[in-house]
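WARN retry 2 of 3 for item q-0093 after timeout on previous attempt; input resubmitted unchanged.
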Amino acid sequence: MAANGEAQPRLLKVTRDDQAKWYVADLSDYYSGKYPYVWLRDNCQCSQCYNKECLQRETLTADMDPEVLPASESVVDDGRALEVVWPDQHRSSYRADWLDCQRFSESQIDPISHPEYQVWGAEMNGNIPTFDYASILSTDKVLYEWLRVLQTTGIALVQRAPKEKGVCRQLAERVAFFRRTIYGEEWQVESKPNVSSLGYTSKYLVLHTDLPYYISPPEVQLLHCIEQAKGKGGENQFVDGWNIVRQLKAEHPEAYKLLSGVPIDYKNAATDQYPFHMKASRPIIDYDLRGELCMRYNDPIRAPYMLMPVEKVTEMYKAIKLFNQVIYRPQNLVHHRLTEGEMVTFNNRRLLHGRSSFEVQAGSSRLLEGGYIDWDEVRSRTRVLREKLYGIKRL
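OK item q-0093 returned
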């Protein structure tokens, strides 16, 4: 709603600036915006220029004149729209409320693409956000809330799920679909011979992220407990990577610089769904172009070769040892032993996770099933739900 109480903002005044090649538009909500001519021509919403069924433009940038000057303009429909006539006599109409949302670098940040993170440590013990499996499947609002928690907190428990295989797939397909890796779309974690990963043993698993030897590692992980061993152990540990980054920056800036700036080599060669030989070289503390954290740490699959200047090798080992000391601080660790029918869902690029060794008593077994979903699909589904539930308009 506009600041003066109107339901939608209206155009009060539109002024040409042919030297800057933009309009200056004053709106009734006290916003004054600049709208470049070429940008307006590129974003004409008429049926010739824009397909409203698939929401895609049908004009080509190659055909645009960056120096275009409108032939004329007028404010119409009592300030609700700006109508522009171009030199070729093509007419374009732009709604005032649409223009009001187009603020370029001052536009509202998409909260789905850029969530406000809740950074945590040991205080999360016993307080991991929890959701009901059946409610996620049946209720859009619960699905939305679960996905938002995954984006902001990075971890959530899903409880009261069936104790059977295929449950992760049902949840993944409520969002979109599984991501396929060298282990398939879904995989079972159980002790077995001739393993392709230490995860398929009963041994202790150090804090790590999955599949750092992928250029684009898996993003959201689902891990469902179907059977839990009646013996000791099998407890999961989780650490928030953003919390570790904060501590390293503040306490050990030189180590942080090394860990975030010098690539570490990872490799894995075995046979699972098919024979594979994976390699990647990236820093342990990695970021994408948007500044999104991508932790890449998995001690068992660090390559024996180190493709870095030999002078940095000893210092890198010191930095990795210090990194381990920080991630294993009691104030950073969250412990949780999954119960049968419970699922942990978490951000594999943000969190490090591990597992204590376990014993299986006679007559019992331990079986977990997991899979991955990409953030692109999670964010897409979240935006669609947000539009549906809260009437958020698309730009």
